[in-house]
Amino acid sequence: MASLSLPTLPKPLLAITGATLLFGTATPLLKILVDGMAPLVLIALLALGSGAGVLCWRMVSGGSRFTTRQPRTSRRELYLLMGTVIVGGFIAPVTQCFALTVTPAATAALLLNFEIVSTVLLAFWVFHEPADKRIGFALILIFAGSILLGWNGESVLGISLGALGIILSGFFWGVDNNCMAHITAYSPELIGLYKVIFGGSIAAVLVIVLGEPLPGADLIVLALFTGFFSFGFGLILFIVALRDMGAARAGAIYAAAPFIGCIASLFIFSDTLGSQFWLALPLFAAGALIVIREQWNLGCPAAVNDTTGNGR
Asked: Could you point out which of 103, 257, 283, 294 has its C-alpha 20 to 30 Å from the C-alpha of 139?
């Protein structure tokens, strides 16, 4: 069997692999950052770094400037753009950052597998992307792992507040993924900038109004670095993969990101992990492997045409 060299791998596969690595390693970094600064300050700094990453990507990829002429879009695409900007630019990251303040990094990384559940289910129910009974079984495993990992008998809801926040952020990221996957009239860079400007501006205004203190210079640099690579370059790669592979297929490969974040967190932090973590881990792993195998076997659909000519 001939092995695939890097230059001959399909571009969507390279894109989703890069995005998975960047997003996966972001979880332990976010935990370090959110323990040292207010979540809203972190969102503003991540947005600044992400915006710089998007602009650098644009220059490196050969684009000297963004077009000022607005592309002709349908009302549906405008709603999708509004959805990804509002949900992915502010609601999802704020929810995740606040939840990380009370959740161990390794636990949070595994719970982010719930993003797979929401991404695939929304892709199937709302956008009619293909799925089968095995995918449904895999999602049940991941959902069961989420409930097991987040279970807290002393809580009124039966699940810890931090775990509920991470699961909720996973749902929001699933909404964001599906919106981005079906926007073809705007380039990935422009979508990224819209999200950065919206989310970063709201966070910055709230930081000023609430008088949130700034962290030390070392944490500021780390936040900008994380935003630049994970949420700048990573976002562009993810949008490219979403368009070419569909939300369900790209989400299947992206299933490796939480495990990358979990492994990195175990090396970085010394948090004590209880039996719930180790009981939930095989459920997440089995579910993710089934999703990856099934969606991979479906193959990769033809790329969606980009009406601006700037998307890839």
From this structure: 103
The answer, yes or no, to whether residue 6 has pLDDT greater than 60, is no
Number of C-beta neighbours around residue 308 at 10 A: 17
Tokens of 285: 């792993």
Using a CB cutoff of 8 Å and minimum separation of 24, what contacts does 54-59 make?
54/189, 54/192, 54/193, 54/196, 54/232, 54/235, 54/236, 55/189, 55/193, 56/228, 56/232, 57/189, 57/232, 57/233, 57/236, 58/189
Q: Is residue 109, in this structure, part of any structural domain at all?
A: yes
69 assigned to some structural domain: no
Contact 289, 135 (CB under 8 A): no
| Residue 45 confidence (pLDDT) | 96
Mean pLDDT of the chain: 82
Give residues with Cβ within 8 angstroms of 59, minimum separation 6: none
Helix, strand, coil content of the chain in percent (nearest 5): 75, 0, 25
Structurally, the chain folds into a number of domains equal to: 1
DSSP-based three-state secondary structure for 3: coil
- Backbone φ and ψ for 151, nearest 5 degrees, come out as -65, 135
Contact by Cβ (8 Å): 161, 84: no
Q: Which residue has the higher pLDDT, 59 or 207?
A: 207
Q: How does DSSP classify residue 101?
A: T
